[in-house]
Amino acid sequence: MRVVSAHQMRELEERAIRDFGIPSLLLMENAALAVIQEVRQMLEDRHIQLSAGRATVFVGKGNNGGDGLAVARHLLILGMDITVYSFARAEEFKGDAALNYRLYQNTGGKLFTIEGEKQRRLVRISLAQADVIIDAIYGTGFRGALPSLIDEYVEEINRAQVPVVAVDIPSGVEADTGKVYRKAIMADATVTFGLPKLGHFLGVGPEYAGRVSVDPISIPERFLDDEKLTTSILTEDVCQYLPIRSLQGHKGTHGRGVLVAGSEGMTGAALLAGKAALRSGIGLLQMVVPRGLAEGIDLALTEATVWGAESEKALNGNAWPVIYERAEKAQALAIGPGLGQEPELLLVIEEVLRNLPLPVILDADALNVLAKEPGILGWRQGRGPLILTPHPGEMARLCGCTTEEVQANRLELAISKAVEWESIIVLKGAITIIAAPDGRAFLNPTGNPGLGTGGTGDVLTGSILAWLAQGVEPLAAACLGVYLHGKAADQLTGEFGLSGYTAGEVADQLPKARRSLENNH
């Protein structure tokens, strides 16, 4: 599913109105009906009949407020007790919003205009009596900080122990960035229209939006699936990338991968990446590790073949001949988990970039070493696919900026660097971003805070390596690996909640995540 900016969504709506002849008022009515479906379900989940419920609706003067007034009118007709609080006077409403203001008044609904502090007590009484709150103050055109008066009432709404449904996007959240400057509505559910917005997934947007549902509001599917919209949200459709195994297949046909990893004190990273590759179905996993650690790694991961390079505690320049020999018959290579940062490793990475035409993943310490000379990425161009899997700190080192700057512009930075470096960028985080050299980007909705523990990034690297080795195209392999990694973690929350499970358990869960994906398709 595509994900859009506020400007892109406005253009889609204008095209639907202009080219398809859909009246703008109909779009507003359809939006209202979609919100009502959410309200109905929310009340039913709490065993409250819609006709017996009470709703408090907050509206602003724009089209978002018009949507809210249409919601209020329909709910009133369906028998709910409705109170609307408006942050604008009647004459400030324009167009379709003004019409819905009049229509709501004509139904005899209660409406109060908030002009200052004097309505605070009345609002508190309404919130205390409400079964649901509808937020329709600001929509996707909002930027910056909420006005101080609205700020104060938003605080009252957030303090109320009442479920909140946001119309399109919670008021106070920027639709393009997910930024919140002071306060914003903390919604339990958000009903958005046409397509999801970037702010539902970026920044702190997910924390404020709650559960997001999308309604097309009668905009034609061909408009919503326009190839000019280059950012998408990953869905279970990634199932199409899973390789189909022949009944005549064997370990040699299920992919050979090389994993260059490990150093003294960091063998766990190598083992976790290796386990994840095996759990993701790789046929043959070959690990290149320091010779002094090879025996221990071989005993710990008996399903892999382990090759020791001429070093005791950490790989150095002597690793290249071993890597090259193993890579000659492999379909993919990953380098980085627990690698250490010996200065000579930069020369090894140079050789990998220059001389290995197979798909290559650079992760963890490989990225930290690369950050000393990021210009050598130019040597890779045209020689084979390259995937970089940085967390925000590693991305900051690669780009020569701060982690805060990375986090403030995750999507734009990932896309620009993917294009500049002609590489696939997997920028890890609460919503991992996969950016392609052609400017496309994918946002991953799976995963949870439990992944914030040591070793989970190594598991992701091993999984992507396995899909590459099995012949999945590089961009698809990155998307598939990221989605299944997060899905495995989500499945573990059923037993452990949002913390306490380990990276090794995520790796062990990968086959079950893949299987559930297959079963759903």
TrEMBL record:
The protein's required cofactors: K(+); Mg(2+)
Source organism superkingdom: Bacteria
UniProt: AMP binding residues: K428, G429, A430, I431, T432, G457
Catalytic activity: (6S)-NADHX + ADP = AMP + phosphate + NADH + H(+); (6R)-NADPHX = (6S)-NADPHX; (6S)-NADPHX + ADP = AMP + phosphate + NADPH + H(+); (6R)-NADHX = (6S)-NADHX
Domain annotation YjeF N-terminal: ranges: 9-225
Keywords, ordered alphabetically: ATP-binding, Isomerase, Kinase, Lyase, Metal-binding, Multifunctional enzyme, NAD, NADP, Nucleotide-binding, Potassium, Transferase
GO terms for MF: ADP-dependent NAD(P)H-hydrate dehydratase activity; ATP binding; kinase activity; metal ion binding; NAD(P)HX epimerase activity
Domain YjeF C-terminal stretches: 234-517
Residues given in the record as K(+) binding sites: N64, D135, S171
Gene Ontology annotations of biological process type: metabolite repair; nicotinamide nucleotide metabolic process
Binding residues for (6S)-NADPHX: 63-67, 139-145, 168, 269, 338, 391, 458
Enzyme Commission code: 4.2.1.136, 5.1.99.6
InterPro entries (alphabetical): Carbohydrate_kinase_pred_CS, CARKD, Nnr, Ribokinase-like, YjeF_N_dom, YjeF_N_dom_sf
Cofactor note: Binds 1 potassium ion per subunit.
Stored SUPFAM superfamilies: Ribokinase-like, YjeF N-terminal domain-like
Function: Catalyzes the dehydration of the S-form of NAD(P)HX at the expense of ADP, which is converted to AMP. Together with NAD(P)HX epimerase, which catalyzes the epimerization of the S- and R-forms, the enzyme allows the repair of both epimers of NAD(P)HX, a damaged form of NAD(P)H that is a result of enzymatic or heat-dependent hydration.
Subunit structure, as described in the record: Homotetramer.
Family: In the C-terminal section; belongs to the NnrD/CARKD family. Belongs to the NnrE/AIBP family.
NCBIfam families with a match to the protein in the record: yjeF_cterm, yjeF_nterm
Descriptive protein name: Bifunctional NAD(P)H-hydrate repair enzyme
